[in-house]
């Protein structure tokens, strides 16, 4: 694989960033990495709002890629518009080849219930991969403590999007806790998706998201009842987890979709 950053440099960066703040990592990514075309992928959750705030203070027009699947909660869409107006964000809505209606015509209604991997492929993986062709790197807001499938999330990694096209992925808040994310919002007087106030802990598409109960994993409300924990975009971290995890209590996953 032809890489944008030498692998030994990636290792050094990961070692260094373990003790860096997210702001320092974002600053490196935008100003010092040498990666010219960089975007943020976000569903405007708590840590994503924090990451967007950090990055847009350095580069106001940094592209914020939002997967407009057609299945989001109305509250999420309103919140996205509110934050975009407040911070003057450059939000780029990504859509797949089907609308909710044409998907139902082509594949039947409620595909997300019958085959959520296929639904995510159509509405998330395909449009996202298409958009990333225009970038050298993307930043996400994955936290290692948000789910067992994410506990080995690297801060900097490289993947081959397609033959000849390598992409750097940066997770500046990998080491953050749930509490850190909320503290950042409070410190900077930033708003949050009102669904958190109703008991949602991780918010994705409405048909595949439920509130969590006391004691449950933060992402337990995503694809609840299914052996699915990721939409396929964050495949690498899930694969690393599958290959390295020795925790016998972890359930099997179908994350590589
Ligand atoms: S999260 Fe659910 S509704 Fe959204 S794209 Fe995936 S399967 Fe479809």
How would you describe this protein?
The chain has 257 residues and is α/β, with parallel strands linked by helices. The chain has one domain (7-194): 3-Layer(aba) Sandwich (Rossmann fold). Helix content is 38%, strand content 12%. The chain is built from nine helices and six strands, in the order ααβαβαβαααβββαα. The chain has helices spanning 7-17, 22-32, 46-58, 74-87, 100-107, 111-114, 116-132, 178-187, 235-244; strands at 38-41, 63-67, 90-94, 137-139, 156-162, 165-170. Strands 3-2-1-4-6-5 form a six-stranded mixed β-sheet. Strand 5 (156-162) and strand 6 form a beta hairpin. Helix 2 crosses helix 3 and helix 3 (46-58) crosses helix 8 (178-187). The longest helix is centred in the middle third of the chain and has 17 residues, at 116-132. The protein is globular, with a radius of gyration of 18 Å. It starts with 6 loop residues before the first helix and ends in a 13-residue tail after the last helix. The model is unreliable at 240-257 (pLDDT under 50). Bound molecules: iron/sulfur cluster (SF4). Residues 69, 71, 112, 116, 119-120, 123-124, 204-205, 207-208, 231 line the site of iron/sulfur cluster.
Label the structural class. alpha/beta
According to CATH, the homologous superfamily is: HUPs
Give the topology string: H per helix, E per strand. Answer: HHEHEHEHHHEEEHH
Global mean pLDDT = 87
Q: Report the CATH C-level class.
A: Alpha Beta
Overall spatial form: globular
What fraction of the residues are assigned to beta strands by DSSP? Answer: 5-15%
By CATH, the topology is: Rossmann fold
Largest sheet features? 6 strands, mixed
Count of spatially separate domains: 1
Catalogue the ligands.
Answer: iron/sulfur cluster
Count of individual helical segments: 9
CATH architecture: 3-Layer(aba) Sandwich
Give the N-terminus to C-terminus distance in angstroms: 21 Å
